[in-house]
């Protein structure tokens, strides 16, 4: 009789550490004419990403991203899933992971539960390859290799107009 070894989690992004969280920046739809706003701040125990999504001028997204960090891939090597530990607001967010040497990224949405602090489990095999504007990337490998990740971002989009707020204290990789 054989059994699988127990799953183990590795912290790949620790946003409960102020030094790591302060390096995160925002990019919103005004780069393309929209009017959405967002900010990041160090909140009790994590990175607070908040703002307002406006659909004016064909807008409708806000994002925050961490700095390039080749250690993410080393820590995530062999991962079967990623866990986003966060307090949500009931809206749906998108986790984007990338290898900065490639023209594509991988994304997966996760619906949050308002006011609840929990870990949102994102299986590696459900990440989808996308291009720069989140359009499908048919030339990319269809399966994410976690060991190649060197940057992580969080988006809110999908015409979710109005205020938003999510506080993320970390992202883990489960092997």
Would you kindly provide a written description of the structure presented here, covering whatever features stand out?
There is one protein chain. This protein has helices at 18-21, 71-76, and strands spanning 9-14, 25-28, 37-43, 46-53, 62-65, 81-87, 92-98, 105-111, 117-123, 128-130, 151-156, 162-174. It is mainly beta. Strands 1, 3, 4, 6, 9 and 12 form a 6-stranded antiparallel beta sheet that branches. The protein has a 6-stranded antiparallel beta sheet with strand order 2-5-11-7-8-10, with no helix packed on it. Strand 7 and strand 8 (105-111) form a beta hairpin. The longest helix has 6 residues, at 71-76. The relative contact order is 0.27. Residues 1-5 have low confidence and may be disordered.
State the helical fraction.
Answer: under 10%
How much is the average pLDDT? 93
Q: Strand percentage, roughly?
A: over 45%
Shape: globular
Major sheet, described briefly? 6 strands, antiparallel
Give a brief rundown of this model.
The chain has 2 helices and 12 strands, in the order βαββββαβββββββ.
Task: For this entry, give a set of tags.
45% strand, mainly beta, globular, 2 helices
Give the helices and strands, then pairings:
Layout lengths: L8 E6 L3 H4 L3 E4 L8 E7 L2 E8 L8 E4 L5 H6 L4 E7 L4 E7 L6 E7 L5 E7 L4 E3 L20 E6 L5 E13 L1
Antiparallel strand pairs: 1-12, 2-5, 3-4, 4-12, 5-11, 6-9, 6-12, 7-8, 7-11, 8-10
């Amino acid at each position: 009789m054989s059994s699988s070894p127990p799953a183990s989690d590795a912290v790949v992004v620790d946003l409960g550490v102020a030094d790591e969280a302060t390096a995160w920046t925002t990019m919103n739809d005004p780069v393309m004419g929209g009017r959405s706003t967002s900010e990041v701040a160090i909140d009790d125990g994590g990175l607070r990403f908040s703002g307002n999504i406006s659909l004016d001028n064909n807008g409708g997204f806000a994002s925050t991203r961490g700095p390039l960090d080749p250690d993410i891939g080393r820590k995530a090597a062999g991962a079967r899933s990623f866990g986003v530990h966060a307090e949500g607001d009931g809206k749906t967010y998108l986790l984007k992971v990338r290898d900065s040497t490639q023209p594509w990224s991988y994304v997966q949405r996760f619906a949050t539960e308002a006011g609840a602090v929990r870990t949102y489990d994102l299986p590696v095999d459900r990440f989808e390859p996308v291009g720069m504007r989140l359009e499908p990337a048919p030339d990319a490998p269809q399966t994410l290799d976690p060991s190649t990740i060197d940057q992580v971002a969080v988006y809110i989009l999908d015409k979710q107009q109005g205020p938003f707020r999510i506080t993320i204290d970390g992202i883990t990789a489960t092997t």
